[in-house]
Structure formats: C-alpha cells, structure tokens
Amino acid sequence: MRKPTLQDVADRAQVHRATASRALNPATRSLVNAETADRVERAAQALGYRPNPIARSLKTARSASIGLVIPDLTNPLFPPIARGVEDVLGAVGYNAWIVNTDNDPAREAAAVESMRSRNVEGYVFATARLEHPLLEQLAAAESPVVLVNRRAGRSDIPSVTADDATGVSLAMRHLVELGHRRIVHLAGPQGLSTGLSRLRAFRQALADHDLDNAPERLVVCRSFTESAGAEAVHGLLSAGVDFTAVLAGNDLLALGCYDALGEQGLRCPEDVSVVGFNDMPFIDKLSPPLTTVRIPHYELGAEAARLLLEGLNEPQRHPRSILLPPTLVVRRSTAPPAGTTTGRQGGRAAGGRRAATPHQAPVRPVRPAV
C-alpha cells in the first residue's frame, strides 16, 4: 500500500504543497493562517500522513533536534534535568537525543560526531570539564552549545548552574549553628566546576566562621560516587582525624559517608552529622533522611533548553550564563555534637531534632574502630 505523501495532504486540504509543509512543521506553523493549518492537520490525520524528519533535515539542514550529553544516566541527578530540557524543547517542536557517555571522552566524541552527521542543531552538555577539548572544537565550529550543571574554563560558552557558593554557605551556617567546629569536606574532582567551586566556598566558609582550616579535614575525592565517599571517610578515620560533621560535595559522596560510618560502628547524627549536596530523588528515604542542599534540577534543564533556543534564534546575541538559587533542606542526618546544646538556635536543632543535653554521652572523638 502506497504511503501518503505531502502532496496528497496538500491536495486534500486544497492548499499549495509549501503551505502544507509549513502547517505541519511546528517551527513554521505560526506562518500559516490558523484555520488553514487546522485543515492541513485534519487532512494529514485522515490520510495517516507522517512527516519524514530525515528528508526535511536533508533539505533544510535543520533537524529540529538537539543533543543532550549526559555523563551517567544511572545517577538520579540527571533524569530531572533531562525532563526539563525535553519539556521546553517539545513545546516548540524540538526533540532531544539523549546520549550517555559514562564519562568516557572517546565515547562522547563518537556520539557527538554521530549527531553532527544527522544535522543536530545544538547541544546541551552535562559532562563539561574545566578543560574539555571537544567543547573547544564545537565552539571553534560555532556549534550552539549550552552547559548544564557544569561550567567550562572559558567564559564564552553559556551555562546554567546552581549557585554553589550560596549552597555551601547555607550548609556551613547550619552546622556551625548546631555547634560544630570540626567539619570535614569531601570535595569532588577538581577538574569539574562543581568540585572546584564547592571546595572554594568551603574554604571561604571556614574563614567566615573562624574555623580551623587544618588540611587533614579536606579530602579531594577521585569521583562523585558513593564508593569514593566511603573511601575518603575510611581514610579520615584510619588517620585519626577528629571531626564531628561532614559536608559532602554531593549526595552520592554522603551515601558513602553513611556506609563508612556504619562499618566503623559510628552513628549519624549522634556521632557524626552529614550534609549532602543536590537533594537527589529518594534521598529523604535514607535512614536517617539526609540533610542536603537542594539544587533545582528540573529548572536547570529547562533554563538550559531556553538558552539554547535563544542561541539558535539569535546567533549574534552575546552568550550569557545563569545561576539558580539553592535551598537547604534540613532532615535528620544533622544534630548538635554529642554533649552540646544547639548553639545559637535555642531549644531545638534546625529540622526539629531535640538538642543534646548534658546528661547524654560525652563528646566522642571520631577514631577508627579497633
């Protein structure tokens, strides 16, 4: 059975073929009278006609699609970002081609080359490193690119990120107000903007609160993963580092803290308070539920898609970047250090936990189990 063609649709709707094409293309539908566009749409539905996006792409060099490059689809951080990108793009007739790279530069380069051969019009990258040769190549080729949840070393590539400095400041203020003075930071890899900016903010917070900046209380983790967080905390405990709270560079590192503390017979928050960063889905279901800095992941994706569409529609516009505000979500993984009061917050710790009282166990230094 012969497939219906665009000419068949035009004939049935009694319009020119070019008018039918514009009416069926979401990007150009507004150029056609609404009544005519509806008549064309009804004709297409009656005939069972489906536009051929590949043929349209070959003819116009435009595919109405963008590439969304994700480092790890198993990380719960990224699905809300992808949803935000897709929702904004879908509203104007664009599609997102999602590729997972597993943080492998060769795999990433192959995926981008494949998308370029299919006339993908632009890219949203969630994989950006501070030094990223592929991004340099795309920028040199004037390919529209927006970074999401990451920044690059160069300032002329638009990005949408959370305000990491504010997030760290909120977390540190919370811990200090609970009475913590010996706070450890598990930093993410320093080749990623999130790892670097959160570490810088931690150091600034130490100065702001007049806290000891002993180098042994800072660990740069090999990756933003649960295993890396556990490895870091095991190292701190083995070295006999004295601390009462951990600010983790992301929620996965905080999960690793839980693992390591439990294996050493230490309790959270009774022995060590833990704060994460991101507020991933289901992180409130942990035992105890994790206090964390909430990043607006869906909004990150939505704003990145809007920035990319802005660049596609106004290529001469000067690139701009957006910072979105985080919030602190206080749950039950943070409490005053054992044997202390709540500090400046009065009778209850933030998040509803009752303050420790003098008859409770004395301060327990955090040391490796024997």
Automatic annotation (TrEMBL):
Keyword set, alphabetical order: DNA-binding, Transcription, Transcription regulation
Keyword Protein transport in annotation: no
Sample GO molecular function, one term: transcription cis-regulatory region binding
Region Disordered, residue ranges: 328-370
PROSITE patterns named among the record's database cross-references: HTH_LACI_2 (PS50932)
Residue ranges annotated for the HTH lacI-type domain, each copy included: 4-60
Biased composition (Low complexity): 331-343
InterPro entries: HTH_LacI, LacI/GalR-like_sensor, Lambda_DNA-bd_dom_sf, Peripla_BP_I
Protein name: LacI family transcriptional regulator
The species this protein was found in: Plantactinospora soyae
